[in-house]
Amino acid sequence: MSERELGAVIARREFSSAAGPVILELAAPVDVGGNTFCHFRITGLGDDHILRVGGADAIQALQNALTMAASTLYTSGTEITWHGQKDLGLPVTGVIAALVPKAHTETCCHHHD
Prior knowledge:
Layout: E1 9-17, E2 20-27, E3 30-32, E4 35-43, E5 49-55, H1 58-74, E6 80-81, H2 102-108
Antiparallel strand pairs: 1-2, 1-6, 2-4, 3-4, 4-5
């Protein structure tokens, strides 16, 4: 599979923006020469293209693809919402976490002392 092919879509999420819907499509992880990759596409931001993210195995490739998609959406310069909320319900790490409304970390991450 080339970097320009999405592959079999296993998950799709529709977000909202003032310009219209923003769509995230996530393809099934694929093994390419002993490496695992997950392709995803974001449409509706004006620069529609397929991105490829790798991982040690299929689970890590999926997780990395979701994290990269979140980074792309949160840093797009477009206000994007999901079910009317700015929290897009995607995993984030590092500096991108600072862009997510505080309610996300309070409701998704349960810390027990």
